[in-house]
Specification:
With 731 residues, the protein is mainly alpha-helical. It is built from 30 helices and no strands. 36% of the residues are buried.
Length: 731
């Protein structure tokens, strides 16, 4: 979240900016994307999705005719695709334009190379040693990886190296170091990924990647690929430290693994705290340290039996360590200083000074007439924006601590017979939930990381006992689901914690999805989730301004929780619905899914979201722009008929772009890539239909891109010299 965005939200929360002017403020300060930003987005999105669809169409077609194609024909198809891709790259390289397209062509060529090697191994039965495929694949694409300087291609190559090492080390004979085999295998992987991480940092600092501008890192501003490589290094380093936890017979192996892990921790601390602060990398470090300590503590405390005292000590230790980590990370991000200033203001001291960015935002809002020109800046409290990964870290720690706490309480209550009574479990749940609400509602507790984590742990334990009481009782379905849904709605409203509200909202929407399926109307689900996400994002301030002022702060948190909960369930249901049609694990019987009706509802909700976005920019409904956009949405709805998940996830990406929500955008891109891989195994249509569908989707999107830029925007931008260079860059 940008500083300007968060400052505006703070001003809205403090009633300095009227909530009816919220969207106008975001638009005026270009927090929301402007016209050229949308043009750039649609250009890249249609290019990437269209290219991916065409490649998928070829793969599906080959897979459909696999049994009927001879060996030479199979090789000819794959090799022809490879030759055409490289030829296009060479042709475009002579023009020294279309950088993104050239990089994508090399990425596609690298993927086709893997397919060619897999085909060779299948035809000539050379795949006995599976590591050879990944080793040969990584070796052959090295020139393209170096030439492209494309982060996605580098990540593919690193993934191939890891796959090769994992498979090779599993088969390799390490009997000469029999006492150190496990440690040696993990140590090699940890070392390779650590070296890759260091090289990645060096290359990123030198700005070797040609995609995107990489500024000097500060507070989690490295290129996104750096954090993925850092996460890989964190995983293998942490695995190295815990590989000997449950087999500590070899003291030397244990000592070596811990020393290597400590060396990794020292480097991360020095590089991302002493030399230059990066809070996300430091979050990786805290996660690794807490994980290692918890594993070693659990081995000592729970080695022989699960005792209540051991579980309680583990829960309290996790709460203390995670709270200390959050305090340290917030201090590293300069958030604790802001908290101290706000606390001083609450006690009647002079107002804290706002920073330059916030002051510039206030002046800009005054100049646009959205706030009074005589507004007192001293009324503005410093802006606090807790990063999403700290909230995720807090939520994960709280959930794990609540499971340990529930284990402790269960062992205690089992001796009293409380677990045999649903009423007693409901009473236990009510007591724990009330205690959590009381702790959350106290400001001095809410500002303390330790008490905040403890409150989350206790209230989450209350949730678990309520679930156990409901679903272990003699209530029939769907009554238990309805009661569970109402309980989640109640807890979402009254609990003043964003992470708790997110968890409760996910459960509540999950119950609604299940009930729609239970009542044989699953076609409503996709449209329902898109509508919820649209209202929680695009229509958020229009709804909140109808609420009392005292409810607005909670409504903003609730809207954020609804956003991520609906987006997550939308992505999950898009994948799961087809499996549910041919199995009995989603509901208690097989249901029939009407794809036409579901797609029609999805298109209608998409049109509603489109109307709200156009209204934000004061675009008349009966205008040329509106007509083009609406026609594009309808066309997408038609061509995505046999791949509804693509349309649903595309809506997540578009809404995230409309509200400039980078976290939601990242989730949408990840969900889209995952759906592309999963779509191959979808059972509702044949591979031939999928191939034709992908061909139509790819061709249509590339045609729309050409018409959008060459025909419409070329005319509208022709009189704007500043936009001419932007248009040429897109073409």
């Amino acid at each position: 979240m940008s500083q300007a965005r968060h400052t505006i939200e703070q001003l809205i929360d403090q009633s300095i900016v009227p909530i009816k002017h919220a969207d106008a403020a975001f638009t005026q300060l270009e927090v929301y994307p402007n016209r050229h930003t949308w043009l750039d987005f649609f250009d890249k999105a249609s290019l990437l999705v269209g290219t991916t669809a065409l490649v998928s169409s070829l793969i599906f077609f080959i897979a459909y005719n696999w049994l009927y194609i001879g060996k030479m024909s199979k090789f000819a198809l794959v090799e022809s695709a490879l030759v055409i891709t490289i030829a296009l790259y060479v042709a475009l390289s002579f023009r020294r334009r279309f950088t993104l397209i050239r990089q994508l062509l090399l990425l596609i060529a690298s993927m086709i190379t893997g397919s060619l090697l897999a085909l060779f191994g299948q035809v000539y039965q050379t795949g006995a040693d599976t590591w050879q495929l990944f080793f040969g694949w990584a070796l052959l694409i090295i020139p393209w990886v170096v030439i492209a300087r494309f982060p996605a291609l580098w990540l593919l190559w690193l993934g191939l190296i890891n796959a090769f090492l994992i498979l090779y080390l599993t088969l390799a004979d390490l009997s000469f170091v029999s006492a150190y085999q496990d440690v040696l295998r993990v140590a090699i992987l940890a070392t390779i990924n650590f070296i890759a991480f260091i090289l990645w940092l060096i290359s990123t600092e030198k700005k070797q990647f040609s995609i995107g501008t990489i500024d000097k890192p500060s507070n989690s501003s490295w290129h996104w690929s750096t954090y993925i490589v850092g996460l890989l290094s964190t995983y293998f380093a942490t695995h190295l430290a815990i590989v000997t936890v449950f087999d500590d017979s070899n003291a030397l192996a244990m000592l070596l693994s811990l020393l290597l892990w400590i060396g990794w921790c020292v480097f991360i601390y020095w590089r991302f705290y002493r030399r230059q602060v990066d809070v996300l990398m430091l979050t990786y470090l805290c996660f690794s340290v807490i994980t290692v300590i918890m594993f070693w503590m659990s081995q000592r405390l729970l080695a022989y039996a699960w005792e209540a005292s051991g579980l309680l000590l583990l829960a309290l230790s996790l709460i203390v360590m995670s709270s200390a980590a959050v305090v340290w990370l917030r201090k590293a991000a300069n958030l604790e200083r802001v908290d101290d200033q706000n606390h001083t203001m609450e006690q009647g001291a002079p107002a804290a000074r706002i920073n330059n960015t916030q002051q510039q935002t206030l002046i800009a809002l005054q100049q646009t007439g959205l706030i009074d020109t005589d507004a007192n800046f001293d009324r503005v409290t410093p802006s606090i924006d807790t990063p999403w990964y700290l909230q995720l870290f807090f939520g994960f720690s709280g959930m794990l601590a609540s499971l340990l706490f529930v284990g402790f309480l269960t062992l205690i209550l089992e001796q009293t017979g409380t677990l045999d009574s649903s009423v007693a479990l409901f009473i236990t749940s009510a007591i724990l939930s009330a205690a959590g609400w009381f702790m959350f509602s106290k400001k001095h507790i809410h500002q303390s990381s330790f008490w905040n984590t403890l409150a989350f742990t206790i209230s989450a334990a209350g949730q678990l006992y309520a679930a156990f009481a409901l679903f272990s009782s003699e209530m029939n379905t769907p009554l238990d689901t309805w009661l569970w849904l109402l309980f989640q709605v109640l807890m979402t409203v009254i609990m003043p914690n964003i992470v708790y509200r997110l968890v409760s909202t996910i459960i509540a929407l999950g119950c609604a999805v299940y009930l729609f399926s239970y009542y044989q109307i699953p076609e409503i689900i996709l449209g329902f989730l898109v509508l919820i996400m649209t209202l929680a994002n695009v229509q958020r301030y229009g709804i909140i301004q109808r609420l009392p002022a005292s409810w607005r702060s909670s409504a903003l948190d609730l809207g954020q929780a609804l956003t991520y909960a609906s987006a997550g369930l939308l992505a999950i249901f898009s994948v799961y619905v087809v499996k549910a049609e041919s199995s009995r694990d989603f509901v208690s019987y097989v249901f029939i899914y009407n794809y036409l009706f579901s797609q029609a509802l999805l298109v209608l909700t998409s049109l509603y979201a489109t109307y709200l976005i156009l209204q934000r920019y004061n675009v008349p409904l009966f205008s040329k722009t509106s007509f083009i956009v609406i026609c594009a949405v309808v066309i997408l709805g038609v061509i995505f008929l046999y791949a509804a998940g693509f349309l649903a996830i595309s809506l997540i990406i578009i809404i995230a772009t409309a509200n400039s929500q980078r976290v939601l955008l990242g989730f949408g891109v990840f969900a889209f890539v995952s759906y592309v891989f999963w779509y191959y195994y979808q059972l509702d249509t044949s591979l031939l239909i999928k191939s034709a569908s992908m061909l139509i989707i790819g061709t249509s999107l590339l045609l729309i891109r050409w018409l959008l830029i060459k025909r419409y925007f070329a005319d509208s931008l022709s009189n704007n010299p500043a936009a001419t260079s932007h248009q040429e860059r897109l073409l």
